[in-house]
Amino acid sequence: MELVIQTERLRKQYATRHGVRVAVDDLDLAVPRGGVHGFLGPNGSGKTTTIRMLLGLARPTSGTMRLLGEPVPQRLPAVMHRVGAVVESPKFSPHLSGRRNLLLLARSLETDAAGRGTPAAQVAKAVETVGLTGRDGDAYRSYSLGMKQRLAIAATLLKDPDLLILDEPTNGLDPAGIREIRETIRDLGASGVTVLLSSHILAEVQQVCTSATIIGRGRLLASGRVEELVGGTSAYRVALPAGGSLDDARRVLRDAGFDVGPPGASPTGGLTVTTERPEDVTRALAGAGLWLSELTPLRRDLESVFLELTSGTEMGAA
Asked: Is residue 58 a contact partner of residue 12, using CB atoms and an 8 Å limit?
């Protein structure tokens, strides 16, 4: 598996009046090429500090880091043209249009623009990718926060990066803005760009991530493909058509040896049944003349996995 980001025993500590504060604690981070990788944890867990070290904005206390196969910070200048990042609020001229802001930036990158086309072509492609076509002629000061975030992502795309690092890109956005950024990130991951998405909103991130790393108090808690982290399912929601008797269904399933829980959250009412063979649920109910309107797997999500990993512990940075 090719890794675009790799850290080994990465550590960052600060001296404070109250002693040593450890922000990142021997972190092994592995981000595979392709798709969207969630870098997840609560506020203060060390995500931004890790990203700042990867980008040469902070110096690690110890450990090693590699970006796109190159050791950093030693070889950072050799790979930065392949890396885009939105870590802090970008600085754009409020009186210029979004397109004009991007054109000025593209022209400043022109000396390293081999194979990327003219600045105007670069800007047009970036604007289309982030969904700002039709609004790119408006003044930046008139943009919503979500549009400003999308323009910031467009600015990073002018370099045609192999790796895009986004630190809490949905902070402060309303639901519509969150949805817009989510769709942009999903499209970028599908286009071949590897995206490292740092966030503390686990339920939101699960909708776009193919793999994820969960950290707490600067330490690695879990990492892998999302479906591996959330695991399989052995619980199902069972519902019957209107008029069907849940009491009868519960009795039939218990008599057949199933572990049947209380009514579930289905709008039509339902039961929770634990089984490794959902087809047996259908067979048992049909044999008693009861027909299903719903047999839905109840899957864990990243948020529930995270809560299990950090149960009873404050997992922000020390």
From this structure: yes
CATH numbers and ranges of domains, the chain = 3-230 (3.40.50.300), 235-297 (3.30.70)
pLDDT tens per residue across span 183-217: 999 999 999 999 999 988 877 788 899 999 999 88
Tokens of 99: 């397109």
Those residues with Cβ within 8 angstroms of residue 50's Cβ, 6 or more apart along the chain or in another chain: 7, 10, 12, 24, 27, 29, 39, 215
CA distances from 185 to 34, 85, 131, 144 (A): 12, 13, 11, 18
Peptide bond into 90 cis (omega under 30): no
Assigned token pair, 153: 């992502």
44: left (phi over 0), alpha (psi -120 to 50) or beta: left
- Write the DSSP symbol of residue 293: S
CA nearest 192: which of 223, 163, 234?
Answer: 163
Higher pLDDT, 114 or 117: 117
pTM above 0.90, yes or no: no
- Give Cα separations from 294 to 89, 129, 290 (angstroms): 46, 39, 12
Tokens 């500090």 sit at which residue?
Answer: 49
Cβ atoms of 127 and 138 within 8 Å: the answer is: no
